[in-house]
Design goal:
By secondary structure, the protein is α/β, with parallel strands linked by helices. The chain has 17 helices and 14 strands. It is globular and about 65 Å long.
């Protein structure tokens, strides 16, 4: 399986990802647990662990209990924030070292901002790095140092209800835009919403990746955009916006797509109302929590003809584990990351959360994880949105999708967003 993960296209994009400066808007909505300052409690070293994966709370509760049993002198206090709040506040939370002895980072500009603030402890010489696929942790590297280790391997493409697809006799492998539209229409004819689209939060930023995947097959398209060598008014982006409009106009994104949040969209696919969820594999755990009996899979819309298709899907390495450089309990924090990095514990995390991981030799027992292993062999590209090297440009790109879904003509939406790009290059 390690050979599969290290395909040339994946390796190339992970190398590129080191230079990413984009603001990550995607992710999963978490929930907040109790928070308290880390310190000495009853002779124990108390460390703070902060992240955004509310869906993983039960798995981490179990792992933390196991860690504390093995390390009776260390207590772990976990706090989970909603993803958007975490993105905007993590740097502030970490600054004085009072919280986030162990913290997580998104790749891209979130990682870069924290690095520039000097909040990453250098992990380059830690033994636990040997447990990871060296190609899959490149997103946590900069300045020839390993600042963080991405634990998750995520596929940022639609999740589909395999149970419903089987009932309706549908093929989850559209090979062209026409086939994808026909798939959506068949679902609609059967009385289901084709695509649960969380337009109120992460939907536009997530679904854009697979929608533009083959419309702009150049992996450096956003570098070219910043360099003035490409524009949002070019065919690749206008076509993408036009296809967003087509899906919305045909009702395939449901009613009021921009008013649906991610938890609501997850519920739609879990209860059978919708056939597809336009986010990614990170949502599987949330779906299974609502409906443990549902069978799920991954698919990707092909927005071009079969002969023009280059890419089959989207991947990202994320949920990057790190130690706060301002922490006074760095050794205890490293022990906890080392524990999470052990094969057996990574297996437990993966199979309880339905998340693929970057740790070597992990055996996946979850049926959803097993079914997604085929995507290791497919020609997937690193999430394009994570490669936008300017936060304001990234916002402009997302805004053009939102504008189209609100009724703006695709050409006009592209022109308006390009003006913002021009101001930032």
């Amino acid at each position: 399986m390690e050979e599969k993960r290290g395909t040339p296209s994946m390796k190339r994009m992970f190398l590129v990802s080191i230079l990413i400066l984009s603001v990550v808007l995607s992710g999963c909505v978490g929930s907040t647990s109790s928070n308290s300052d880390s310190g000495e409690v009853d002779g124990k070293t108390k460390i703070s662990f902060i992240h955004w994966r509310g869906e993983d709370k039960a798995a981490f509760d179990s792992l933390i209990a196991e860690f504390e049993e093995q390390n009776k002198d260390i207590e772990v206090d976990m706090t989970i924030y909603p993803s958007e709040q975490y993105q905007s506040t993590a740097q502030t939370l970490l600054r004085d070292g009072s919280t986030g002895d162990v913290f997580t980072s998104y790749p891209g500009s979130h990682f870069e901002i924290i690095k520039q603030a000097g909040l990453f402890e250098d992990l380059s010489n830690e033994d636990f790095l040997e447990n990871y696929n060296e190609r899959l942790i490149l997103a946590g590297q900069a300045d020839d140092k390993q600042y963080a280790v991405p634990l998750q391997l995520v596929f940022n493409q639609p999740v589909y209800n395999a149970t419903l697809f089987e009932e309706l006799g549908l093929d989850p492998n559209p090979k062209s835009w026409e086939e994808f539209l026909a798939l959506c229409q068949a679902i609609a004819d059967a009385g289901h919403t084709p695509i649960a689209f969380p337009g109120a939060d992460i939907g536009p930023g997530q679904f854009m990746n697979s929608m533009m995947m083959n419309n702009a097959p150049e992996e450096d398209i956003f570098d070219k955009l910043i360099a003035g060598e490409a524009k949002l008014t070019d065919e690749w982006w206008v076509k993408t916006l036009t296809q967003f409009k087509e899906l919305n106009d045909k009702g395939y994104l449901g009613n009021g797509a921009l008013g649906t949040n991610h938890p609501g969209a997850i519920a739609m696919i879990a209860n059978g109302e919708a056939a597809m969820l336009a986010t990614g594999s990170f949502a599987v755990a949330g779906i299974k929590e609502i409906n443990p009996d549902i069978e799920l899979g991954l698919l990707a819309p092909i927005t071009v003809s079969e002969s023009e298709a280059v890419w089959e899907g989207i991947h990202t390495t994320t949920f990057m584990l790190a130690v706060n450089a301002k922490s006074s309990k760095k050794e205890a924090a490293k022990k906890f990351i080392s524990f999470l990095s052990e094969k057996e514990n990574a297996e437990e995390y993966a199979n309880k959360t339905s998340q693929h991981v970057t740790v070597n030799d992990v055996e996946y027992t979850s049926e959803e994880l097993k079914s997604a292993e085929e995507w290791f062999e497919k020609n997937t590209r690193f999430q394009p949105r994570y490669l936008i090297p300017n936060a304001d440009v990234e916002k402009a790109v997302i805004a053009s999708i939102q504008a189209v879904l609100n009724g703006t003509d695709p050409v006009k939406a592209a022109e308006d967003s390009q003006k913002i790009v021009d101001q930032n290059i």
